[in-house]
Write a sequence for this structure.
């Protein structure tokens, strides 16, 4: 058993899932993997099950009854990882928009003192490949908006490639996390920030998926806009 586990939420990722799992297990640093699948009709979970015999004790699978959102999938994974005593708990997409090799950079940042290490697209400029300009601007200015409202000095507040030390997740009441998209990513960072944990940004290059379908929607964007304001109000009222 490794001291680090990579949580990969999936819904219809049959085109990517085997390759992403093999890429993580090929790294020099040993990581375990937990796939949280929302009962994908394309057979994603079955593909993971077929690999479990090859990676006994390292590849884990949790299947939920239905598609219930990215945030709740990560919360499910966080609870599982905490219960299984992992020290370093990672978020990573299944679609190779996050380079698995960068897991080692995030790991080293936390080993060397960070409590939260963010794989940041914007800490050294704009490091995004294959996104249309409209989406780059949306993401970039969303982080600026978050900094303005919350006061967090984080360049990539909506990033979803992250390493948390277990103590950070244990300090957060995960049962109160209800957001599902960008707002979930912002809330997790804001709670860690409000609890005084050390947060660092590690520069990465983000490459948009080439296989499968994006899960982005207008509802996710709306949730983020209103969610940031609600987080700031909760903090002001000491209800965060």
């Amino acid at each position: 058993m490794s001291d680090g586990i990579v949580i990969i939420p999936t819904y219809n990722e049959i085109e990517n899932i085997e390759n992403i799992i093999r890429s993580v297990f090929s790294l020099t640093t040993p990581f375990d993997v937990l796939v949280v699948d929302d009962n994908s009709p394309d057979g994603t979970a079955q593909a993971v099950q077929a690999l479990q015999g090859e990676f006994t004790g390292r590849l884990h699978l949790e299947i939920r009854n239905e598609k219930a959102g990215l945030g709740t999938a990560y919360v499910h994974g966080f609870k599982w990882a905490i219960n299984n005593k992992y020290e370093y708990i990672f978020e990573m997409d299944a679609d190779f928009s996050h380079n698995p090799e960068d897991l080692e950079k995030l790991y080293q940042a936390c080993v060397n003192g960070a409590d939260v290490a963010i794989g940041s697209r914007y800490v050294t400029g704009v490091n995004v490949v294959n996104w249309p300009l409209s989406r780059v601007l949306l993401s970039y200015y969303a982080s600026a908006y978050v900094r303005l409202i919350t006061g967090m000095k984080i360049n990539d507040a909506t990033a979803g490639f992250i390493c948390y030390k277990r103590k950070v997740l244990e300090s957060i009441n995960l049962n109160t996390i209800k957001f599902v998209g960008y707002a979930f990513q912002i809330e997790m960072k804001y709670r860690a920030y409000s609890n005084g944990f050390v947060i660092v940004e590690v520069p990465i290059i983000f490459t948009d998926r080439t296989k499968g379908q994006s899960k982005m929607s207008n509802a996710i964007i709306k949730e983020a806009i209103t969610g940031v304001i609600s987080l700031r109000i909760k903090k002001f009222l000491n209800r965060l």
User: Anything to note?
Assistant: The longest strand covers residues 4-10. Helices lie at 17-25, 44-52, 70-83, 103-111, 133-150, 166-170, 182-194, 218-236.
